[in-house]
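User: Sorry, what's this?
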Amino acid sequence: MEEYVTLEEMLCFREEKVRIQEELRDRHPGEAVVALGMNIPGPKKTSPHILLAFEEGEKTLDRLFPEKGLEVSEETEIKEKAGYLRFYSVKCPDALFIKSLMIQVEESHPLGRLFDIDVYDADGRGIGRGALGASPRKCLICGQDAKVCGRSRSHGLEELCEHVENMIRLWLKEETD
């Protein structure tokens, strides 16, 4: 059975995200908070394939933080119909450095375009790609600025959802070959 998310459920999910970020910041002052989610268009935010892609994002960050000498003081996650989120409180006051690492993941991993990795500084301010001179996220279909395509609805929802599913299938095939 397909599980579609209502607008109210998405808004509650976003509120929960903010609440968890604030709790982590309160418990770990001076640390950056990283939130890993998924860029999934449309009202269906979860599936077995999307979960596998999300878990790959978790594994990637779980390897990356120690490789870069970053200590995670706390992790928590949400897995519900409205989506998947994993939070990391990272013992590093340099949120720009962390954001640069997350941009590298988003741009180099085969599923990186589907990862939505937000970084918040010790004061809770989100660090955007522009703070590092990075270009905006690209559209899944045509490679133009994703926000421009989204606002103009350049691509149909069915086309976007099919493209996401194909990206995950291709990654799974490459993982098993």
